[in-house]
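Translate sequence into structure tokens.
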Amino acid sequence: MGIIDYSIIIAYLLILVGIGIYLQKRASRSTESFFLGDKNMPWWALGASGMASNLDVSGTMIIAALIYALGVQGFFIEIRGGVVLILAFFMIFMGKWNRRAEVMTTAEWMEFRFGKGKQGEAARVLAAIAQLIFAIWAITYFIQGAGIFLSEILGISPDLAAILMISLCAFYAALSGLYGVVYTEVFQGGLILFVIIYVVSHVMMNITLPETFVVSVPMGDGQFQQVTQNLKDWSSFLPRWEMNIPGEYSQYNLIGLATIMYIFRSSIDGMSGSGGYMIQRFYAAKNEREVGLLSVFWIFLLSFRWPFIMSIAILGISFSQTGQVIDNPETVLPKVLMEVFPVGIKGLLVAGLLAAAMSTYVAIVNSGAAYWVNDLYQRFIRPEATNKQLILHSRVASIAIVILGLLSTYLFTSLNDVWGFLTMGFGVGLIVPQFIRWYWWRFNGYGYAGGTILGMITAITIRFVFEDIPEMPSFYLTAAITFVGSIAISYMFPPTNSEDLEHFYSKTRPFGFWGPVRAKFSEEIIAPIAAENRRDIMATFFAVPWMLFLGITPMMVVTKQWTYALICGSILLVLSVVLYFIWYKHLSKSVKVS
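Result follows.
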């Protein structure tokens, strides 16, 4: 890079620091200010912030690697997490269900669901611990990606690169809380969009792929093997039933079965309500209507990720045609930036991708710290803590999460290794009890706490003791053990107090197995709830494919597969019209929750 590139990057970093310092006082008013922005942030800012948080550099590098090697089939693999399909469920019903609780964290929500007695406390403690562990390992994943990306850019060791990145992130995340996270991400989101538009336009105007080309795949032992791809198969938007890829990616050869599993996994995750930095945006929304608006805006902005990643993969293939095939698919993104783009533009692109990396870091750090401060320290250790002490703990916890995440990087061998464990192992152990809590009245706080412990132990044991178990069997085994254990433990203890159940049901208005609770309400109350539930269920069946085609359609445009693009675009248009009538028109009449 040239002096102008470094100048652009330094200017960008100084702006971030300036925003953090400017918002420090506002974030220090209370923990609600620090973690939820006083529940007074506009929906467009929360939606733009969510997009920037999801468009992380680690995930972008993994998805670019998969699409470079496998083509559009890589999109179906990333339904496991990279597509962020859970947003379709948040858009339709899960976002408003969470907002109706008026809490700060998923752990605090447990006492809303299970009451403030012993079982509610048990569920809250386990939820906080689980989410803290998940935050630390998520930081591990992003640290590894930042290390690979910056080491390629700056020519320094991955460890030093990661330390430089996270030090800056920890500084302004600890300084300005959610205010800093959201408004720096709005700024970063604008920069990211500029990068995306520039790269996609460059590819569309200058590159057309040949009918056959060579890519490289990892063999799992540090070696790489070149394979020849056919453009028609590589760019097809229809999931194949199987592929014939050697090495590490051979675990995805039964791609049809894997796609079904990934959709199932993402659906369960979406219907479970998730946690962490994503749910924080919904808790912070002004009201229920703005939950829907921020969701659809978030999804729309996030769809720009896919033509960008496809463009990076195409640039990697085009570069490889010069005789310098990129061996490691996970380095396609930084190699393309360094080799293809001119001075000046290179600095803007690197700054934009640094924005993508840093926005995700700080969102996870901020939400993770909330579990320590709100759900452990203030709730159980020092209820009489002053506001000054709480803010101090918020900042110390932010730094501690970053340090523990850095130390955990040595437990994993690659980005895909960490991501697979988070989405298909440890994450599954958490989402099963999170799923049951919404839909079954008999599930109690002890069932949640016990199921969460069992899920974490199972996932960690499979990953670090039985390392040879593939991703798919690991998913099913963890899910089955956690599900059976959660149900069994619930039946070992009495149901949640009837008054707590009625309060939860009347405010949240969920669908599912709530017969004994519904029976205590009059038909006048139940009828509108049932009508809302029916609309939401119907809308969800359209929202899921709508979100998938919102990603696939622009990918077809970038690959210049015009027939595929027309088919996908037509389907997307029909789904959009249907959602307007069965979801958006009713959203505009939603009852506000203050």
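Note: Residues 79 and 263 are 6 Å apart (CA to CA).
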